[in-house]
Write a structure and sequence with these properties.
Length: 712
């Protein structure tokens, strides 16, 4: 991809040398987190977003080049490649332009034009196209041949028109004009199918029916919903442009005069547009619109996933996790400060058993026996009732109660990962463990779950699944590496997302740890089977070792920069430990004295920042949310009520907020702020504590409309 550096730089608005360096590093196997953190001098301090942008542009350019080579080879093998044709192919810059050039030469199935050519009517089509006759009927007479299936003049002219229509539809000029018209003026028109009402989920889609809007202005979430409705055969979708404008644009290129030939050509132009060009360009426009909608939906999903993974952790606290339930009871687990399972059992405080007092006594006993410091309650069925139970207990000072999202916990509990971790326990225990652990460290726990199952997406099943997986995997990798991992406690799943590793090396690290005990230094990672110098370079800075042989091993300072820090300590006549602990000593350092060929001011500034807070966690601290005690079900809500809630999902059309009941309420984009809002994610974030007002309640449909306008 390095050969595309100049074009990638221009499109990404960076310098050519920055794009070239970035693409070179990627070609050498460097990961995006590694490049953005440890190769700032080489890239000119490009961040992860810029690096990905350069890479993605280069990938698209590479795809165009691969298609160009394939077309050239095909035409060459078929002896159709003329110098003029080759020149056009070589100068084409985008895929659609390449495909337009290749279209007339593409091997086709039988068409009306090909049938007409077999009947010997191409000569007549050329005469009419060039308007080389004043009497096309007379010219057509010589092409009448019943033996070839041309029985009269009318059939000859009809066949010639079919050939002309195909020529027009394959014309680069015509296609470019119609494509441009669609880009500017295409309207998406939606209607209901005949049997729409019979569909089980018809109501979900029918409010989109009998409406039109400019395709380029249609928001991504609406497009995806409409296309899903079409797939479900509830809706019919068409993308149209004004036919008169389209015909006029084509005629400008193909009509020379006003004669008998031009009248035939006018009919061919109309046929070319309606039968060939319009369906072809409409398919293109729909695909482009779908791609744009996919990209936007994946962006929203990725943003939400990032916020979810980087949610504030409680930290290493002894935790009691509860997976609430009514008839089947509440599954309880006690975890130590590393998330290891110490105890599990089930209580039945709710109907039909109603063992309220017994459940309270049991929980109080467990809190004392296992020195519990925090309680995590799943927010699913019976979650609010269980929270009320816990708050009736005289908890020891310092024990905090948190309501935790259960999204994905059931997926984890039934997974191979969970079975491997807890082979002797059933899914209910595993689910409770997951709830407790995701309070302690959401990132470490959620990486064990397929991101699509976490419940923060928008139409995730309708978008390009390959692109979705790639994007979400990159988000997880970015989050894991921005936080860093404790190499001696991290799970194989967490380690697999560390720069330069992957599942195989992650498993090798865990196996080595089991056999040889905790790692005491980063350099001992090189003893792990198959973890060579390149993998070590990529992963070492993100792998932290507490209380190791080298105090820098607990920081994000890369081992390749240790000599620089050691020189700093030597010049100050102190130890590395002193340098980490003493701010006065660090303030005496003149960074410019340590600039070298490979290490410049950006890296030195990062080193100093890390020395101030070695191993710091970039995430905030977990906060307790206390919902209104009088609101436990949707029936308790009243219009005008003001409540505190937690943002659980952010979409292109608004944000969903948990106000302490089973159903989340929607703050529509128009109700997020007093001023106009074009992107909800600029105003609200996942897990943000917000104040909302109840606008509407629809109990039968279980829908709640909320507003944040005027809320402090």
């Amino acid at each position: 991809m390095i050969q595309f550096a100049e074009k990638a730089a221009r499109q990404a608005a960076v310098e050519k040398w920055q794009a070239a360096a970035t693409l070179q590093l990627l070609a050498e196997g460097a990961t995006i987190p590694f490049i953005s953190r440890y190769r700032k001098e080489k890239t000119g301090n490009l961040d992860e977003v810029q690096i990905m942008h350069v890479r993605d542009i280069a990938k698209k350019l590479e795809a165009v080049e691969e298609r160009r080579e394939a077309i050239l080879q095909n035409l060459s093998e078929r002896e159709l490649l003329t110098p003029e044709l080759k020149q056009g192919i070589m100068t084409a810059e985008i895929l659609s332009e390449l495909e337009d050039i290749y279209l007339p030469f593409r091997q086709k199935r039988k068409t009306r034009a090909s049938v007409a050519k077999e009947k010997g009517l191409e000569g007549l089509a050329k005469i009419i196209m060039a308007e080389n006759t004043d009497n096309p009927d007379r010219s057509a007479q010589s092409f009448v041949d019943p033996a070839k299936g041309v029985n009269n003049v009318e059939e000859a002219i009809e066949g010639a028109m079919d050939i002309i229509a195909e020529w027009i539809s394959e014309s680069r000029t015509a296609r470019a004009k119609i494509r441009n018209l669609y880009s500017r003026e295409a309207v998406i028109a939606v209607t209901a199918t005949k049997n729409a009402a019979e569909h089980a989920e018809a109501e979900k889609y029918l409010h989109y029916a009998d409406k039109t809007e400019q395709l380029r202005n249609a928001p991504s979430h609406r497009l995806l919903a409409i296309f899903r409705g079409e797939t479900e055969k509830v809706l019919k979708v068409a993308v149209n442009v004004p036919e008169d404008k389209a015909l006029q644009l084509i005629s400008q290129s193909f009509l020379k005069g006003n004669n008998a030939c031009s009248e035939i050509k006018e009919r061919a132009i109309r046929d070319a547009f309606k039968r060939l060009l319009a369906p072809s360009i409409e398919t293109e426009m729909r695909a482009e619109a779908k791609e744009r909608a996919d990209v936007e939906a994946i962006r929203v999903f990725s943003d939400n996933l990032r916020q979810l993974l980087l949610a504030p952790p409680l930290g290493e606290k002894r935790t009691l996790g509860i997976d609430p339930g009514f008839r089947t009871g509440c599954k309880i687990v006690c975890l130590d400060n590393q998330g290891n399972l110490l105890h599990n059992e089930t209580i039945f405080p709710h109907a039909p058993q109603n063992e309220w007092a017994k459940a309270k006594a049991k929980i109080y006993s467990l809190i004392g026996s296992y020195k519990i410091e925090a309680i995590a309650i799943g927010n699913g069925t019976a979650g609010r009732e269980t929270e009320n139970l816990i708050r009736q207990i005289a908890l020891p000072p310092g024990v905090k109660v948190f309501v935790v999202s259960e999204n994905g916990a059931s997926i984890y509990s039934a997974s191979a990962v969970a079975r491997e971790e807890f082979p002797e326990y059933d899914v209910t225990v595993r689910g409770s463990v997951s709830i407790g652990r995701r309070l302690m460290d959401p990132l470490a726990e959620l990486v064990k779950i397929d991101p699509k199952s976490i419940g923060v997406g928008q139409y995730q099943h309708d978008v390009d699944q390959k692109l979705l997986k790639e994007s979400l995997d990159e988000v997880v990798m970015s989050c894991v590496n921005s936080v860093g991992v404790d190499v001696n406690t991290a799970s194989p799943q967490l380690l697999s997302y560390v720069s330069g590793l992957g599942p195989s090396l992650a498993a090798n690290i865990v196996e080595y740890r089991k056999k040889n005990g905790p790692f005491t230094s980063r350099k001992k990672l090189l003893k792990v089977p198959r973890l060579g110098e390149k993998a070590f370079e990529q992963c070492a800075g993100f792998m932290k070792i507490r209380d190791g042989e080298n105090p820098l091993d607990s920081s994000a300072v890369h081992p390749e920069a240790y000599p620089v820090v050691e020189r700093m300590a030597k010049s100050l006549k102190c130890t590395l430990h002193d340098l980490l602990q003493n701010g006065e000593l660090r303030r005496k350092i003149k960074l410019e004295d340590y600039v070298s060929g490979d290490i410049g001011m950006p890296t030195l500034t990062d080193i100093m920042s890390e020395l101030e807070k070695p191993g710091r966690d970039p995430r905030k601290q977990a906060k307790v949310m206390e919902f209104d005690k009088n609101v436990r079900t949707i029936s308790d809500l009243q219009v005008g009520m003001e409540l505190m809630g937690i943002v659980t999902n952010v979409t292109a059309f608004g944000a969903f907020v948990d106000v302490g009941i089973k159903e989340n309420g929607l703050v529509h984009i128009s109700q997020i702020a007093d001023a106009f809002v074009s992107d909800p994610s600029e105003f609200v974030k996942l897990h943000q504590h917000v104040k909302v007002k109840v606008l509407e309640i629809d109990i039968p449909k279980k829908r709640i409309s909320l507003s944040m306008k005027g809320m402090s």
